[in-house]
Specification:
The complex is a heterodimer of chains A (about 290) and B (about 350). Chain A has about 290 residues and is α/β, with parallel strands linked by helices. Chain A is built from 11 helices and 13 strands. Chain A has a 6-stranded mixed β-sheet, sandwiched between helices. In chain A, strands 1, 2, 3, 5 and 6 form a 5-stranded antiparallel β-sheet that branches. In chain A, strands 12-13 form a two-stranded antiparallel sheet. The radius of gyration of chain A is 21 Å and the shape is globular. Chain B has about 350 residues and is mostly helical. In chain B, helix 3 crosses helix 4 (about 50-60), helix 6 runs parallel beside helix 14 and helix 8 (about 135-155) packs antiparallel against helix 9 (about 165-185). Chain B is globular. The chains are: A alpha/beta (about 290), B mainly alpha (about 350).
Chain lengths: ~290, ~350
């Protein structure tokens, strides 16, 4: 079992750490949500973990490899990413875009890096023909084979998001980082992304995913890193982390988790603002009104 | 959920016919380039039929001395300069558009060609053109080098400068060089020098000889060869820094090296041709619309298209208009702009 270990990790912006440092370990199959209010530093933390050049404290290791010390080319064999910016040249075709991922993964594994950190033995390390096969297979897996020769410029936003996800899957890395993959997606596309998360987990990958949608976090994630926005960090199973008090402290809104008969959760917030939230925003607490509140 | 095994047995889609045709695009482009070169060598004040051109080229002893002199001393160097410059500008434009992820990027976007122009105008206004054969191109090349050096320095000192930052640095360097050029021309010692500078700025290939070929050939061949070797990196960089980093590219370093290679190529091209801005912007666009954005195909085909395009434009400038004098850069814009507009409108339809 090769785990992803975060050891005292915290992103730094303008000389200050954005949140308490985070220490956690995730095993293959983990789908780790990363949630918190706007500006709490989700993307920065994700960028620190993915080694995108964001200043940060601590280390991120996979197996015995320190990701921060790996060459970019070696790291591409360990970690792949769906960035928030999914823009690609309009004239690129879908299979070319997915092929970029297949090539990156293959090249990373072909080098001196012997793939010691690889968790499952099913991934290909073959020739150029395999690269095309990987692309074709991946497109089939995400149900996009019919788009293979389409140009990126002709896709809808949801299709592009899925194609970018296919590129990530084709890179075939044990760690996958997704920065808000469901942003601006319709229900059908969200559902497909959720299915892909489950599949990647079943394949034994470790998925890190920044999410805004807390219901998605509840349903799709095995673990949740929650940045409260005031600097503290909670880590644990989503149902355990997303307590009413935590979300209230983070968003100033009272929330409740409902569970459907088939076991899906959804998190709602109360229609009427909570008294406490209201009080915080508008009414100063004084000895006179304290009783009334 | 369907399993991986059943999914991968799904019939694979057949390659589009367009794609199969593209395998022949590079050989076809080379053949077309060779044909254009032969035709261009035959056109001019003295017309030579293709057979005579070929004989002059490959059988110098057996051919007519005049024809041989016209082909070898006058037309061939100019034709080679046109081919080199066209390919160079198209290659640099393609690379810039990929790494800056900006469709308006062109070889001059970083200020390199403005720097070359400034160097050339300095050379012309101090009278280098008449006193020293290689003077103006060398001055232009130095100007390009200075700007590339400044850009390099900025990027090394500030690793966080992104694509927009690079473009803005280019904007600043461009206007600086533009101001310098205007000041030099306004204060030129005599009108002939000022006119010479203006003509050079419009981009012209008149009177190009083997010394120009000698100056341009090495940097352009080395620079474009490097770019051709990095087509995968160009693909990945066109997806953005985050994707590129996690796809195994050292973004900062790779971007800088590609930028310097494109600058080298641009500097060499501008040094021998003046400012021909249109080719580097539009040829990559037009070729991308037709053959797609994968650089393994796009870059060589854009280079071929740029070479053919500039050669045709220069041949029109040289031989097509009788007594009307038009610089090559003007003809390339006059021919290219309508073609490009037609391509764009075709795409919308």
């Amino acid at each position: 079992m090769t785990n992803l270990r975060l050891d005292s990790v915290s992103a730094i912006r303008a000389g200050r750490t954005l949140a308490d440092s985070l220490t956690a370990s995730f095993s293959p199959g983990a789908v780790v949500g990363l949630a918190g209010p706007n500006g709490s530093g989700k993307s920065s933390l994700l960028a620190a973990i993915a080694q995108l050049g964001v200043e940060h404290t601590g280390t991120v290791t996979f197996g015995d490899a320190d990701l921060g010390r790996l060459h970019a080319r070696q790291r591409a064999g360990v970690l792949s990413m769906l960035a928030q910016d999914t823009h690609a040249p309009a004239e690129l075709t879908v299979d070319e875009l997915v092929g970029i991922g297949a090539h990156a993964g293959r090249k990373a594994r072909r080098g001196k890096w012997d793939g010691k950190v690889r968790s499952t033995g099913t991934r290909s390390t073959g020739t150029r023909g395999d690269e095309g096969a990987t692309t074709t297979d991946t497109l089939a897996v995400v149900d996009l084979a019919h788009l293979a020769h389409r140009r990126i410029g002709t896709l809808s936003g949801g299709e592009l998001q899925l194609v970018q996800l296919a590129r990530v899957i084709a890179q075939d890395t044990p760690v996958v980082v997704l920065d808000e993959p469901t942003a601006a997606l319709d229900l059908g596309h969200q559902h497909r992304i959720e299915r892909m998360l489950a599949r990647m987990s079943a394949d034994g990958r470790i998925v890190l995913i920044a999410v805004h949608d807390l219901s998605l976090a509840l349903n799709a994630c095995t673990d949740l890193i929650f940045l409260t926005g005031d600097g503290s960090v909670r880590v644990g199973p989503p149902l355990r982390v997303l307590t009413g008090d935590t979300t209230h402290a983070a968003y100033g809104v009272r929330t409740e988790i409902h569970t459907t008969s088939d076991g899906r959760h959804f998190l709602t917030h109360h229609h009427t603002p909570s008294l406490h939230g209201q009080a915080r925003r508008t009414v100063p607490i004084t000895p006179e009104n304290e009783v009334a509140l | 959920m369907t399993t991986l095994a059943t999914r991968s047995n799904a019939p694979s889609t057949r390659p589009a016919p367009v794609r199969r045709a593209l395998r022949w695009a590079v050989p076809a482009g080379l053949a077309l380039l060779a044909f254009t070169v032969i035709v261009a060598l035959g056109l001019g004040a003295v017309r030579l039929p293709p057979a005579e051109v070929l004989q002059a080229l490959f059988d110098r002893s057996g051919s007519d001395a005049t024809a041989s002199a016209i082909v070898w001393s006058i037309r061939l160097p100019r034709v080679i300069v046109a081919v080199l410059v066209g390919a160079a500008l198209a290659a640099a434009g393609t690379a810039m558009q990929a790494i800056l992820r900006n469709p308006l990027a062109e070889p001059g976007v970083t200020g390199v060609s403005a720097g070359a122009a400034f160097g050339a105008v300095v050379g012309i206004t101090v009278g280098l053109a008449s006193s020293l054969q290689w003077g103006v191109p060398i001055a232009a090349f130095i100007g390009a080098g200075v700007v590339a050096g400044i850009l390099n320095l900025v990027m090394v000192l500030r690793r966080d400068v992104g694509t927009t930052g690079i473009i803005l640095v280019g904007v600043a360097l461009n206007s600086l060089a533009g101001a310098g050029i205007a000041a030099l021309i306004a204060n030129a010692r005599d009108d002939a020098l000022a006119r010479g500078a203006l003509f050079w700025l419009a981009g012209d290939l008149a009177l190009r000889d083997w010394s120009h070929v000698a100056i341009a050939v090495c940097p352009i061949v080395v620079g474009t060869a490097y770019l051709l070797a990095r087509t995968r990196a160009l693909d990945v960089l066109s997806l953005g820094a985050d994707v590129a980093t996690t796809s195994g590219i050292d973004v900062h370093r790779t971007r800088l090296i590609i930028l310097m290679a494109a600058s080298l190529v641009t500097g060499a091209a501008v040094a021998v041709s003046g400012v021909i801005a249109f080719v580097g912007l539009v040829v990559p666009h037009a070729v991308r619309l037709i053959v797609g954005a994968a650089h393994a195909r796009l870059l060589p085909l854009a280079m071929l298209a740029g070479a053919i395009f500039l050669l045709v434009a220069d041949t029109i400038a040289r031989a097509g208009l009788g007594t009307v004098v038009l610089p090559t850069g003007v003809v390339s814009a006059l021919v290219g702009a309508p073609v490009f507009l037609a391509l764009l409108l075709r795409r919308r339809a």
